[in-house]
Amino acid sequence: MNILIIGSGGREFAIGEKLKSENQVSKLYFAPGNGATSRLGENLALSDFEELAKFAFNNQIDLTIVGPEAPLCDGIVDVFKKHNLAIFGPSKNAAKLELSKSFMKDFLTRKNIKTAKFLSSSDFNEISNFIDTLDGKIVVKADGLCGGKGVLILDDKNSAKEAAFEMLSGKSFAQAGKSVVVEEFLSGFELSFFAICDGEKFVSLPVAQDHKRLLDGDKGPNTGGMGAYAPTPLASKELIEKIENDIVKKTLDGMKEDGNPFCGVLFVGVMVVENEPYVLEFNVRFGDPECEVIMPLIDGNLSEILYNAATQKLTNIKLKDEFAVGVVVASSDYPYKNSKKTVIEVDEIPLNSHICYAGVSRIKGKIYADGGRVLVCVGTGKSLKEARDGAYLLCEKVKFDGMQFRTDIAHQALK
Ligand code: AMP
Ligand code: GLY
């Protein structure tokens, strides 16, 4: 099989690395890829969907896999399908589950799926009246895509109203904030739940936990994610069944009923409150860094699973009885601004660990840190502790100026 992967992050590197280990995969391409994916396959400087489809057709690409949300929301899947090319990911209409929080909230309400009480509006008076009905902390979200940064948690009604006003004025999040979603604050623990879907059927992946805040102890600003681990012991068998039956199945049935069958990765951001799962958000792709810890736990052929999902004949998935922990190593000024390019040195890589490269470029054969989240140190093992120790041992072998990482990944499970 020849496979094209769209994207340039650690997530796409992890997918590529898994595919590279499979006998049936012959050629791998990345568009655009990063400074390290060129070790796994060929990087292509293409982004126009028609040009990518033409490349796929001319180069006998059997399957295209889309990593990030932006091309999905812009309709890359619809363009490939128009040309009868196999592509794994949701259509533009189905990707609205991630693109618009108000679409997602409306969908959840219509299909009777549990989520935080909310109001979605662009009218300040209406929002202000709704805020008056809430108690405790209040969550204010920009409706559109903001790279995970459009969510504010406010301590009281007045600051919530101010935040909503700023968003509506376009000051804080430009067009993405012209409509806002206000929610009650849910207190519990979060899970990242992933299902590979073919429009009707799904298979679940090991349940992960992300660490969104920059600093140890879940302090500091929100980021794209500073580390993840899977499977989490916080997700009991009973809880997984509830998520599968009450959220994933209902979502797939509902999307099909509405004429937008969902094919791709459904990523449910779950908040568990008193053992009940609530949907915080949907994403229509693998999480990053969750993908980096899930890939090493898949025992079967990923190429076959994703091809079957893309062609509506999904079967089962084989998983390893192991754990994986991924620690994101970021540059000095992440998440505030870009840092200076700096060379990465890596000593010998210990057993049962590996690096997924993300924000890197290659100059004269050397890999440079060239982005916010630079790489992910992944450890695997028979226990979570073994996997965590492996990941941190690897962190000690990596060196570049200004590198920073959290030292407490998986803390909720290893208390
Ligand atoms: P979202 O992008 O909607 O997942 O929100 C980003 C983060 O904000 C989530 O991962 C949660 O940590 C937090 N969050 C969002 N909505 C709520 C809510 N209703 N209650 C508590 N925390 C929330
Ligand atoms: N790690 C969370 C995300 O990919 O959105």
TrEMBL record:
Record-listed E.C. numbers: 6.3.4.13
Record's protein name: Phosphoribosylamine--glycine ligase
Keyword Nucleotide-binding: yes
Reported cofactor(s): Mn(2+); Mg(2+)
Signal peptide: none
Sample GO molecular function, one term: ATP binding
Family that this chain belongs to: Belongs to the GARS family.
One Pfam assignment: GARS_C
GO biological process: 'de novo' IMP biosynthetic process; purine nucleobase biosynthetic process
Swiss-Prot/TrEMBL keywords: ATP-binding, Ligase, Manganese, Metal-binding, Nucleotide-binding, Purine biosynthesis
Top-level division of the source organism's lineage: Bacteria
Reactions that this protein is recorded to catalyse: 5-phospho-beta-D-ribosylamine + glycine + ATP = N(1)-(5-phospho-beta-D-ribosyl)glycinamide + ADP + phosphate + H(+)
